[in-house]
């Protein structure tokens, strides 16, 4: 049902009818105050001396109320006025569907219903009085009205301990009946259902546990709308609830509003600390739903949530904000990120606002799609522009679109600008404006380096902008921004001077830049300038056009011809991006001493400069696609260089030997430098280098063994070169994580399981291109799963055919589980029953390692006896027989155990129980034994030949890698198709000829086997 707020047809929420003499002082005034404090618009007529007939004003009040409350007191029936009101109420109930709720105040409901008892006596007395006065009372209508209303569900004061308790019950009930807290949302909830349900599903999964969740996104993305929808759908589950708009209120005001809304009574708070205590005390233990909408600072959350201890079982707090950091600080349980609407949703929402239907008018279809494209899925923009364009002509539509290209819509901008204005740090505002003009689509690390060089503290600044939904990080670490936020930032820059672009802090629009350079109207205000002309452009400008731009720090000139003295360019430059640089070398008077990044892709450079330059701060040098560049510069004057990109420089034939002196160099990209024959030996001294790309260097035929000196090298890419052999030294690298070289591509860990499989089963070799070399023949080949992720795999593993075991060492349990999963995938064996095996018997196969022959014979005898008597039962393996052995069993192909404390193992025996078939026996199908130590994060693998002839050296190899308390699982693997029922692992401690096996329990048939037999037989 709708409240008066949502249905303008109602003048009041509640009309109260009562007999003043016996209820006003003690009850009605208290009820009226409580209803008003709860936000329920209530009409009460306090006139004690009432006329003979109810007036027109009172009739309008009754008719204009959504609900009437009738307070039946003992003397209610003695008032003709009250009974006439009651008749009018019942008429409205019948005619208009008005709600009527009775309250029986110290009177029996049945007495009202039947006009009996003291209530009936007063009613009869009124009738007699009317007759004596010669009036004509509505006797039957009064009776019918009393009977009708008394039959409605209501409240009986006799069931409450006090008037206060009764009032509280009534207000809560009326609040729910009227649906007073049903929030008004958008008329067109396009795409909301799935989004809302995702959050509600999370709440439902908490199984009654209290939770705090956040809704995060940029301004206008629909955070408040989704929060209202969630609130409306789940609010009736909660005893206490409230929706609080947080953005424009003080902390005490917010606390008062929260308590008043949730408790449905006016609450006064005198200090923030007092408010926190009151919230914790009053709401603790209550099942409460609270929405805190548009929270802008953590202090608001502290004031409203405190330490969150009051959020008890079943309570839910939902917080909407543009700043995700607030949610992280509060450590919320779940964050729902608002995503832009997709194209279809956007078109539907826009059309509903612009045309009143889900699809655009045919004659405006293309224009509608252009508006939708401009909005980029932002609900606010779609609603505002749709509403603005409704019933407009096609010419107006075209005009609006043209205007939007230059000046963003004011309503949309006002909403979006809240986030920008909320930045208290001027450096953060500068970073935002720089990004929206020059760096959208650029690598985050690249932009951070440049803006740090400008003194903007970009590491934290960019993080803050991401947290506040002003920018985002997209695929490949590129910075992104919603186009409407970009336009908002650029509009802020324009505000400084609407008619003189030369006074703006940043220039990015081609027409404005051309105007400033042509008319020489630049000023010191300009910090950044970007002009991107087409590749075929022949426009030429004078360098003196930059003479007044002394504060210029960011310069982008793509395919721009500049003549004259380059000394006019700013000495404050930190970023120079000049694709198609028009000179054969950089002039000496072009001052680049403070530059952080130089990007001269597609230049006609032959040399970077004629004389070596000292650029102390240069970190990034990109000369890619410079087809005439013949050699690199002397690097001795570039001590800070971190990234050198010379991709696709086909004339480059020499890399200067001074490259070996660069102590901070992280990346070298020489891809497709087809004339480069060799690398300077000094380059192998680069201890900081992480990435080296030589792909397409057709004439490079050798990588030196000195490459091992590149101790930080993580990525080596050298496909399509003349290199025929991998340097042997590379296998000892401790850092490389990815390699693409000599036909191998990817991390080594992707190949290890295949190699191990081929080692365990040589006839099923899955890597035909791997050939063994004469390496060590020791019984253990250690494999570091993180550090040795590359190299010639055959050399790395050596002559595996001579090895008895392989130990794979992992760094984390997650890495261990992934490797184990891959290895076991190669060695699958069946572990389940099927009907074809029911006719076969159980057999056992023992594998023993260590020195305990006599003990083994005793154990073997016990197992044989168990199998003979048990047939298809589970309990056929001997259990612990202290002090001789400790038993651990597992269904399928593995068993788990913990290495005991204070006991010395002398050996281990594995017992494999399997279903025998004429085709397969355990000895023939055995593949390997895999021992996984979860504590030490290693996997030890013994191939078939080793398993059937374990020796003392093998035992020492195992025991040396086990420690007290280690958690271990042993897998015995077989060829596919072999059916294993159970594995027993026996940790052997002692020898005794006289020891006896404990009697086995009576056989009991496995329930699963009984089920299968029932089906088959």
TrEMBL record:
<dbReference type="InterPro" id="IPR032675">
    <property type="entry name" value="LRR_dom_sf"/>
</dbReference>
<keyword id="KW-0520">NAD</keyword>
<keyword id="KW-0677">Repeat</keyword>
<keyword id="KW-0433">Leucine-rich repeat</keyword>
<keyword id="KW-0611">Plant defense</keyword>
<dbReference type="Pfam" id="PF00931">
    <property type="entry name" value="NB-ARC"/>
</dbReference>
<dbReference type="InterPro" id="IPR058192">
    <property type="entry name" value="WHD_ROQ1-like"/>
</dbReference>
<dbReference type="InterPro" id="IPR000157">
    <property type="entry name" value="TIR_dom"/>
</dbReference>
<dbReference type="Pfam" id="PF01582">
    <property type="entry name" value="TIR"/>
</dbReference>
<dbReference type="InterPro" id="IPR002182">
    <property type="entry name" value="NB-ARC"/>
</dbReference>
<dbReference type="InterPro" id="IPR044974">
    <property type="entry name" value="Disease_R_plants"/>
</dbReference>
<dbReference type="InterPro" id="IPR027417">
    <property type="entry name" value="P-loop_NTPase"/>
</dbReference>
<dbReference type="InterPro" id="IPR036390">
    <property type="entry name" value="WH_DNA-bd_sf"/>
</dbReference>
<dbReference type="InterPro" id="IPR042197">
    <property type="entry name" value="Apaf_helical"/>
</dbReference>
<dbReference type="GO" id="GO:0006952">
    <property type="term" value="P:defense response"/>
</dbReference>
<dbReference type="Pfam" id="PF23282">
    <property type="entry name" value="WHD_ROQ1"/>
</dbReference>
<protein>
    <recommendedName>
        <fullName>TIR domain-containing protein</fullName>
    </recommendedName>
</protein>
<dbReference type="InterPro" id="IPR035897">
    <property type="entry name" value="Toll_tir_struct_dom_sf"/>
</dbReference>
<feature type="domain" description="TIR">
    <location>
        <begin position="10"/>
        <end position="178"/>
    </location>
</feature>
């Amino acid at each position: 049902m709708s409240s008066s707020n949502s249905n303008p047809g109602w003048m009041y929420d509640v009309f109260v009818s009562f007999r003043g003499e016996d209820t006003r002082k003690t009850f009605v005034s208290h009820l009226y105050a409580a209803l008003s404090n709860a936000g329920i618009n209530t009409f009460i007529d306090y006139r004690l001396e009432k006329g003979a007939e109810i007036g027109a004003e009172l009739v309008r009040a009754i008719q204009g109320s959504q609900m009437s409350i009738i307070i039946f007191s003992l003397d209610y029936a003695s008032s003709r006025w009250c009974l006439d009101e009651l008749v009018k109420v019942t008429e409205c109930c019948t005619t208009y569907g008005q709600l009527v709720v009775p309250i029986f105040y110290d009177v029996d409901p049945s007495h009202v219903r039947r006009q009996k008892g003291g209530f009936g006596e007063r009613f009869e007395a009124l009738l007699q009085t009317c007759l004596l006065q010669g009036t004509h009372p509505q006797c039957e209508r009064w009776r019918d009205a009393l009977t009708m209303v008394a039959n409605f569900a209501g409240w009986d004061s006799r069931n409450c301990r006090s008037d206060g308790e009764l009032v509280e019950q009534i207000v809560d009930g009326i609040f729910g009946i009227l649906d007073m807290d049903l929030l008004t949302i958008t008329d067109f909830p396009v795409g909301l259902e799935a989004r809302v349900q995702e959050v509600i599903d999370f709440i439902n999964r908490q199984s009654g546990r209290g939770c705090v969740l956040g809704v995060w996104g940029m301004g206008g993305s629909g955070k408040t709308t989704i929060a209202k929808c969630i609130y409306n759908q789940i609010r009736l589950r909660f005893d206490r609830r409230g929706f609080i708009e947080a953005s424009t209120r003080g902390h005490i005001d917010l606390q008062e509003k929260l308590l008043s809304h949730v408790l449905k009574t006016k609450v006064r708070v005198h200090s923030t600390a007092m408010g926190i205590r009151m919230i914790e005390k009053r709401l603790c233990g209550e099942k409460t739903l609270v929405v805190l909408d548009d929270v802008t600072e953590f202090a608001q959350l502290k004031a409203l949530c405190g330490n969150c201890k009051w959020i008890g079982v079943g309570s839910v707090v939902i917080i909407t904000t543009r700043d995700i950091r607030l949610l992280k600080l509060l450590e919320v349980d779940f964050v729902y990120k608002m995503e832009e609407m997709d194209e279809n949703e956007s078109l539907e929402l826009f059309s509903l606002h612009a045309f009143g239907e889900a699809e655009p008018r045919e004659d405006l279809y293309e224009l509608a799609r252009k508006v939708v494209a401009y909005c980029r899925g932002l609900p606010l923009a779609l609603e505002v522009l749709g509403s603005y364009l409704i019933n407009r002509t096609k010419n107006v539509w075209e005009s609006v679109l043209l205007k939007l290209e230059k000046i963003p819509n004011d309503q949309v901008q006002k909403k979006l600008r809240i986030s920008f204005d909320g930045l208290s740090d001027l450096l953060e505002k500068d970073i935002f404006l720089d990004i929206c003009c020059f760096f959208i689509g650029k690598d985050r690390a690249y932009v951070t380096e440049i803006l740090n060089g400008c003194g903007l503290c970009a590491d934290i600044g960019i993080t803050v902008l991401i947290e506040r939904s002003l920018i985002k990080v997209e695929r490949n670490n590129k910075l992104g921004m919603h186009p409407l936020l970009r336009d908002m930032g650029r509009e802020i820059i324009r505000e400084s001077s609407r008619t003189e672009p030369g006074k703006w802090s940043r220039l990015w629009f081609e027409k404005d830049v051309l105007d400033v350079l042509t008319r020489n109207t630049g000023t010191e205000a300009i910090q950044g300038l970007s002009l991107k002309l087409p590749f075929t452009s022949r426009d030429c400008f004078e360098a003196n056009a930059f003479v007044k731009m002394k504060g210029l720090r960011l310069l982008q000139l793509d395919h721009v011809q500049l003549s004259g003295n380059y000394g006019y360019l700013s000495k404050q430059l930190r970023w120079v991006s000049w694709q198609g640089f028009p000179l054969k070398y950089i002039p000496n008077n072009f001052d680049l001493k403070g530059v952080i990044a130089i990007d001269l892709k597609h230049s006609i450079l032959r040399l970077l400069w004629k004389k070596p330059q000292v650029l102390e701060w240069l970190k990034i040098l990109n000369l890619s696609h410079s087809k005439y560049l013949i050699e690199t510069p002397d690097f001795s004057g570039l001590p800070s260089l971190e990234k050198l990109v010379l991709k696709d420089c086909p004339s480059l034939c020499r890399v200067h030997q001074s490259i070996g002196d660069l102590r901070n160099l992280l990346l070298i990209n020489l891809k497709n430098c087809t004339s480069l024959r060799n690398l300077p030996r000094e380059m192998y001294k680069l201890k900081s280098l992480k990435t080296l790309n030589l792909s397409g260097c057709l004439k490079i035929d050798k990588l030196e063994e000195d490459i091992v000196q590149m101790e930080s090298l993580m990525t080596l890419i050298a496909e399509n070169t003349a290199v025929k052999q991998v340097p042997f030294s590379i296998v000892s690298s401790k850092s490389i994580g990815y390699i693409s070289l000599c036909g191998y591509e990817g991390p080594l860990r992707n190949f290890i399981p295949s190699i191990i499989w081929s080692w365990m089963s040589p006839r099923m070799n899955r890597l035909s291109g791997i050939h063994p070399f004469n390496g060590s023949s020791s019984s253990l080949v250690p494999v570091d799963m993180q550090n040795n992720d590359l190299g010639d795999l055959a050399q790395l593993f050596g002559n595996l055919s001579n090895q008895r075991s392989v130990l794979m060492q992992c760094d984390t349990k997650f890495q261990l589980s992934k490797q184990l999963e891959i290895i076991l995938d190669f060695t699958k064996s069946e572990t389940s029953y099927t009907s074809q095996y029911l006719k076969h018997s159980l057999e056992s196969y023992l594998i023993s390692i260590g020195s305990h022959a006599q003990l083994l014979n005793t154990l073997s005898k016990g197992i044989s006896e168990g199998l003979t008597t048990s047939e298809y039962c589970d309990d056929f393996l001997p259990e612990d027989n202290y002090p001789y052995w400790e038993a651990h069993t597992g269904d399928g192909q593995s068993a788990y155990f913990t290495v005991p404390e204070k006991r010395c193992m002398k050996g281990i025996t594995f017992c494999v129980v399997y279903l025998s078939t004429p085709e397969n026996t355990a000895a023939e199908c055995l593949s390997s034994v895999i021992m996984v130590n979860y504590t030490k994060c290693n996997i030890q693998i013994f191939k078939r030949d080793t398993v059937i002839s374990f020796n003392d050296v093998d035992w020492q190899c195992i025991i040396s890698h086990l420690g007290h308390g280690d958690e271990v699982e042993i897998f015995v693997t077989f060829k596919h198709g072999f059916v294993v029922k159970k594995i027993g692992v026996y940790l052997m401690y002692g020898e005794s000829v006289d020891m006896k096996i404990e009697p086995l329990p009576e056989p009991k048939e496995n329930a699963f086997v009984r089920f299968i037999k029932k089906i088959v037989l």
